[in-house]
């Protein structure tokens, strides 16, 4: 039986017609219904008292005025509108004039090329797996965390009474001051995270290529402090998101970066509004816009700030943000900083997204029921912890249907998917101008730093003038910008070679092969068959530490993730595939995973997987 989460990735639901929008009179009735009810009672049973009630009289006069200004049909129209708001399948298509919806003019952005047919047919080759957590694994995981918490409280008591050494620097108590840190976060760090802290923050001594050197370290006090031994451990790198293998210190990109260091130096030493905007930044902006297929683009020195500092420039009070529940922390922070109302829909669940959109259009803002100033849908191209790909054709269909804007974060998808590495729009065959705000970062496929936003010229000019990231931070470092320029030219083939196409095809082959082999091991694997982010489920906190330590001993470097970065019963190991991995590395990694999975007993998968093969990918020599 499929879980609810699996249903959202396999079932295609018919999309009902758009709702009939409320008349102004109906909105006013909703706003003042608490006042009208007693006023109506007074009107029928005491007319003289009603006339003396100035407040009620004014309300009713204004209501009758609104009713006269509303659409023909008066009370019947309001009654039918209220009835259709309950049953979505019976809602009739609204009559929009000049793109005006819910009281506001919505400008058309780009060409309309996405049809409902595309939203239905793409699923024939679209497969994602989210197998439900086995009951026994969930029970053992909860019991493990409960036991660790109880033991942690016991040890806290021992430290308080001096029976155990307290290794944490104790901040002196200040009379009259509230605690600066939350007690639960500190407790969790001391008693749960500290036990397995050696699994993270491992110092790396080489470039993030297919193989890396990790500096060996030991802890004499069980995770409180670490000391380097001076030894290096050579491991295969399956933890860095170096998707196209440009994280290297030799080759054409490195040579061009060295030249720019000689001409432009290391830093820009000023903001874009000051003297920090160099010729290399202008070249980068134009190149990014051309690569994305948008009218214009603007780049930023930090990927996280590209989301957190620009979303508040686009929406604010009186606006609604509809966000996927698994969106990145930078998107969540940007939404909160904007001051907009935020509603969350279930991951990749188009039925839930339409329900929220329909409700937002029908009911409007809380209490006042005025129409929202803007509605912004925020999604990612590839979700970094799940390995899933957004259902872009359906999202675009819904955003056009309800006249909402779309913000697409392609941090992990740009360069990694699509025939020419242009992200999810190319992957689904969608015109990029159907996406209002295209955001991405240069830290993954481009092996650099910073981020970008692409869109219409009006949008980009607005961000250049109003974004906190352009106004208050220094411009991107010139060698960093040159690294991006060099990689984009290689990916797009502007350098006159097929190196970019070769890397894109190799990455896709690696992803298909690695996922197929993992499915054969009967471990639970999350994500889309074409996603280079490949999570396998570990569940218990002890498995997190044991998996990370055992794989490192056997020469495999991987990232493990647990609560609170994931749900408490969905701890996982995250593998990031790269074009720099060869088949021998993939086979060796699979053998190590198989051995460690048998040791930990995490082969819980009972789901029959559809057949997909790496043989469908044509490699370029």
UniProtKB/TrEMBL annotation:
Protein name: serine C-palmitoyltransferase
GO molecular function: pyridoxal phosphate binding; serine C-palmitoyltransferase activity
Enzyme class (EC, first level): transferase
GO cellular component, as recorded: endoplasmic reticulum; membrane; serine palmitoyltransferase complex
EC numbers, comma separated: 2.3.1.50
Stored Gene3D superfamilies: Aspartate Aminotransferase, domain 1, Type I PLP-dependent aspartate aminotransferase-like (Major domain)
Pathways involved: Sphingolipid metabolism; Lipid metabolism; sphingolipid metabolism
UniProt key word Hydrolase: no
A Pfam family the protein falls into: Aminotran_1_2
BP GO annotations: ceramide biosynthetic process; sphingosine biosynthetic process
Catalysed reactions, semicolon-separated: L-serine + hexadecanoyl-CoA + H(+) = 3-oxosphinganine + CO2 + CoA
Superkingdom of source: Eukaryota
Keyword vocabulary terms for this entry: Acyltransferase, Endoplasmic reticulum, Lipid metabolism, Membrane, Pyridoxal phosphate, Sphingolipid metabolism, Transferase, Transmembrane, Transmembrane helix
Family: Belongs to the class-II pyridoxal-phosphate-dependent aminotransferase family.
Transmembrane segments: 24-45, 132-151
């Amino acid at each position: 039986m499929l879980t609810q989460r699996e249903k959202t990735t396999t079932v295609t639901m018919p999309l009902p017609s758009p709702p009939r929008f409320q008349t102004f009179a109906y909105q006013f009735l909703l706003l003042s219904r608490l006042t009208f009810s007693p006023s109506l009672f007074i009107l029928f049973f005491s007319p003289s008292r009603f006339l003396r009630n100035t407040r009620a009289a004014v309300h009713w006069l204004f209501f009758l005025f609104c009713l006269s200004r509303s659409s023909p049909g008066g009370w019947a129209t309001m009654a039918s509108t209220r009835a259709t708001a309950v049953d979505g399948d019976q809602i009739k298509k609204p009559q929009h004039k000049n793109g005006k919806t819910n009281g506001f003019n919505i400008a058309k952005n780009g060409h309309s090329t996405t049809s409902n047919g595309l939203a239905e047919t793409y699923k024939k080759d679209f497969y994602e797996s989210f197998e439900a957590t086995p009951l026994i694994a969930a029970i053992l995981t909860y019991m493990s965390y409960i036991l660790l918490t109880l033991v942690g409280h016991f040890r806290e008591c021992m430290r308080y009474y001096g029976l155990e050494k307290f290794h944490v620097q104790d901040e002196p108590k200040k009379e009259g001051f509230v605690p600066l840190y939350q007690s639960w976060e500190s407790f969790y760090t001391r008693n749960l995270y500290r036990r397995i802290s050696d699994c993270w923050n491992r110092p790396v001594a080489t470039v993030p290529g297919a193989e890396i050197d990790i500096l060996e370290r030991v802890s004499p006090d069980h995770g409180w402090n670490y000391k380097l031994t001076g030894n290096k451990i050579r491991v295969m790198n399956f933890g860095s998101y170096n998707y196209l293998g440009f994280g290297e210190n030799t080759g054409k990109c490195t040579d061009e970066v060295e030249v720019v260091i000689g001409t432009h130096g290391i830093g820009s030493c000023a903001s874009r509004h000051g003297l920090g905007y160099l010729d290399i930044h202008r070249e980068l902006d134009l190149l990014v816009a051309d690569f994305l297929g948008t009218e214009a683009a603007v780049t930023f020195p930090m990927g996280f700030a590209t989301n957190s500092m620009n979303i508040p420039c686009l929406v604010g009070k009186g606006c609604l943000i509809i966000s996927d529940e698994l969106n990145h922390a930078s998107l969540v922070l940007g939404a909160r900083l904007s001051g907009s109302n935020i509603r969350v829909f279930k991951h990749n669940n188009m039925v839930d997204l339409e329900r929220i959109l329909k409700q937002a259009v029908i009911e409007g803002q809380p209490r006042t029921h005025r129409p929202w100033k803007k509605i912004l849908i925020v999604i990612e191209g590839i979700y970094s912890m799940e390995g899933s790909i957004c259902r872009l054709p359906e999202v675009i269909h819904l955003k056009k249907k309800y006249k909402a804007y779309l913000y697409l974060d392609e941090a992990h998808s740009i360069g990694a998917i699509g025939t020419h590495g242009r992200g999810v729009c190319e992957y689904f065959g969608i015109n990029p101008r159907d996406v209002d705000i295209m955001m991405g970062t240069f830290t993954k496929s481009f092996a650099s730093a910073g981020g970008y936003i692409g869109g219409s010229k009006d949008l980009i000019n607005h961000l250049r003038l109003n974004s906190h990231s352009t106004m208050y931070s220094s411009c991107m470092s010139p060698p960093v910008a040159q690294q991006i320029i060099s990689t984009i030219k290689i990916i797009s083939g502007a350098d006159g070679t097929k190196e970019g196409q070769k890397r894109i095809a190799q990455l896709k082959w690696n992803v298909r092969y690695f996922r197929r082999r993992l499915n054969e091991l009967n471990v639970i694997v999350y994500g889309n068959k074409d996603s280079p982010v490949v999570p396998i489920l570990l569940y218990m906190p002890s498995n997190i530490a044991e998996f990370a330590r055992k794989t490192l001993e056997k020469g495999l470097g991987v990232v493990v993730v647990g609560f609170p970065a994931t749900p408490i019963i969905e701890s996982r190991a995250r593998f990031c595939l790269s074009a720099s991995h060869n088949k021998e590395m993939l086979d060796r990694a699979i053998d190590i995973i198989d051995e460690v999975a048998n040791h930990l007993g995490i082969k819980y998968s009972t789901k029959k997987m559809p057949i997909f093969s790496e043989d469908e990918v044509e490699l370029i020599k």
